[in-house]
From TrEMBL:
PANTHER family: FACIOGENITAL DYSPLASIA PROTEIN (PTHR12673), FYVE, RHOGEF AND PH DOMAIN-CONTAINING PROTEIN 2 (PTHR12673:SF82). It comes from Rostratula benghalensis. Its main location: cytoplasm. GO terms for biological process: cytoskeleton organization; filopodium assembly. Residues 5-193 form the DH domain. GO terms for molecular function: guanyl-nucleotide exchange factor activity; zinc ion binding. This is FGD2 protein.
């Protein structure tokens, strides 16, 4: 007898989950455990570094190994009398929020591995030694660490496929669709975590270009737009090149540095967005000009 299509997908979910738990075991019980042991002996890197690299991988491993995989196994053994997985996946979905932390930390983790491998040869040797083992299948630690990042999108695809193959009158349809909706929300949650991380990285990059003006380094700031601008001097009817950064709360009026050591710009003026007005001017001599007036000062600027 031909297996129904939806059962094939449910079995694929189980098989990939088994392989995934093995991968998590490798990350948590082998890499993390052994690197931590050496760090505790003070031989390789600070313990904090190892903890930061592996983030909350232990919780993720425990959850999949002790809860989700056994539930799936049980269900697939009983498939003949209970052909559904929607309810099991609904129980899984809320726990997938744990991934937000891991995903958000991923870039930093990879960077730490690189930095400390250069700083600490024993650390690099230990990783290389584990990577040579059969269980690593010739793949690097970084490669294995990518697996949890890709797992939630994988659930989403498998479940979409499963729902497509379900017969219209299947008792699992309602549950499976609800489970997909839940996983979709979690995936969005983890994408939001990634977007937030990128926003903070962009913000940091701007501060470095401005020579790290301390009070600009506020994680709630958002860079909206930046670019070169001409400042019009009404005194002698000339223009000079300046540069603007517009944040959600302030406009930074900067001067490009001639000698770029460290910072690229010097902040000459900041105008609070609160109470700031922008008015277009119809100046025949200087087209595309506008007036920015704020609590701190009024500027006459010309765009390209």
């Amino acid at each position: 007898v031909q297996e129904p299509e939806e059962k094939k997908i449910a079995l694929e979910l189980l098989e990939t989950e088994q392989a995934y738990v093995n991968r998590l075991h490798l990350l948590d019980q082998i890499f993390y455990t052994e690197l931590m042991k050496e760090a505790k002996n003070g031989k390789t890197v600070p313990e904090e570094v190892v903890k930061t690299i592996f983030s909350n991988i232990s919780s993720i491993y425990q959850f999949h190994a002790n809860f989700f995989l056994p539930e799936l196994q049980k269900r697939m053994e009983d498939w003949s009398c209970n052909p559904q997985i929607g309810d099991v996946i609904q129980k899984l979905a809320p726990f997938l929020k744990m991934y937000g932390e891991y995903v958000k930390n991923f870039d930093k983790a990879v960077e730490l591995i690189t930095v400390w491998s250069e700083k600490s040869p024993p650390f690099q040797e230990l990783i290389a030694d584990i990577q040579k083992r059969k269980v690593c299948a010739n793949l690097t630690l970084q490669h294995h660490m990518l697996e949890p990042v890709q797992r939630i999108p994988r659930y989403e695809l498998l479940l979409k496929d499963y729902i497509r193959k379900l017969p219209p009158e299947s008792p699992d349809r309602g549950n499976a669709e609800k489970a997909l909706e839940m996983i979709f929300m979690v995936a969005k949650h983890s994408n939001a975590a990634i977007a937030e991380m990128e926003r903070l990285q962009n913000l940091w990059a701007v501060y470095e270009r401005l020579g790290l003006e301390d009070d600009i380094v506020d994680p709630s700031n958002e860079l909206i737009k930046e670019g070169p601008i001409q400042k019009i001097s009404t005194r002698n009817n000339s223009t000079s090149e300046k540069y603007l950064f517009l944040f959600n709360n302030m406009l930074l009026y900067c001067v490009p540095k001639v000698i770029q050591v460290g910072a690229e710009f010097q902040v000459h003026l900041r105008i609070d967005v609160e109470g700031m007005k922008v008015r277009e001017l119809n100046d025949t001599e200087f087209p595309h000009t506008f007036l920015v007036s704020g609590k701190q000062r009024t500027l006459e600027l010309q765009a390209r």
